[in-house]
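User: My instructor asked us to take a sequence, write out its structure as tokens, and then describe one feature of it. I'm not sure where to start. Here is the sequence I was given:
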Amino acid sequence: AMATSSAVKTKRRRSGKLCEGRTSLRLKLMRVFLIAVLIAIASILAVQLTSNERKRSNELQGITEANHHGVGVGVGDVQEQWMRDEVGGDEAATDASSDAVTEDEEEEEEEDNAEGEEVVVVVMPEVEVEVEVPDIYVLEVVKEFDHDHLAFTQGFLYNQECSSEEASCKDMFYESTGLNGQTSVRMVNAGTGRVEAKTMAEQRFFGEGLTRWGEKLYQLTWQSGATLVYDAETLEFLEETKTDLKDGWGLTNDSSHLIATDSGHTLYFLDPETLKTDHKVDVADGDRRVKYLNELEHVEGEVWANIWMRNCIARIDPATGKVKGWIHAADLTAKELVKSDSLGRRYTMDVLNGIAYDPATKRIWLTGKQWSTVYEVKVVPLSSSPSLSATLDLNQVRRECIV
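Assistant: Let's start with the prediction itself. The structure tokens for your sequence are:
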């Protein structure tokens, strides 16, 4: 009887060890499965985040950035090896503790192992999202030219005027000015600042953006919905028409469409014949909309936009709306305000607003509302200015530029 009791106790101890081994194996398999599920969920969320970012960039004014996303692979191999080591080690330990089990118990163990093998572990690779950020640029002044300090500049573009009689050409600006009763379209001598021709608009119009299309100039107006059309050679007023925008702010063109803004964060591409919107893109820096897009200029495939009441110019990819770079112009504005103070010409709205570009020579000019100066400038990377690099970074620029 004592021998029988001892055998029963030994069998119970062996059965207990077997149960403990099985329990440990199941727990570890469950832990591996849960880890794999969490990895899969995280990967799916990352992929969804990438998809949403692409969709938002297409729908927003920024900007599709999808072609800069990459996928990191290799984590799955490490995790799979880790699981093999963990599970394999437990199986070896279980086999060692089960040498003396009965035939029925061995069959039961095989069934349990078969059930464990049915667990499918899905290991997804991690998704690495590469986010491209805008570059930062600053300005170097090349030359300074006089500008009518009473001109409330709303549109500004370069024009080369050539004379067959004199066999020479001179640099000119077309300029649109605003304010009711002061709205005009002008031809300005770039070298002297002298207004050589001017056509005034009716009192009811508040002039805004300006661009040339063929032999005509198109001038947007604020809040009225009207677009004024002039002869590009004589500035003779031709007609009043309208776009389908709720308002008129900035205006330029890309040789295919007129490109306009209406105070928001959208670039509208207008059919030059009908002035109706052909398509539009929303402008954004990352996931932040960039609104108050004001005076515009098309520069080497980009749309440059003054940001209303900010010392900033956004360099925009017109295909996606993405802000590719920021031109930080605070030093230029400060320089102008010092000059205005010395001349006793400070105004309430004397802000940066006016970009002109000569594609033949790559020259760039900037001015502002009621500024005394037009500045020919060179746009350079922030890194080329050690003093500014020490105090200026992307976060600071975004705080200053994004309303």
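For the description part of your assignment, you could build on this observation: Helices lie at 2-59, 75-96, 103-117, 330-343, 386-389, 394-401. Try explaining in your own words what that tells you about the chain.
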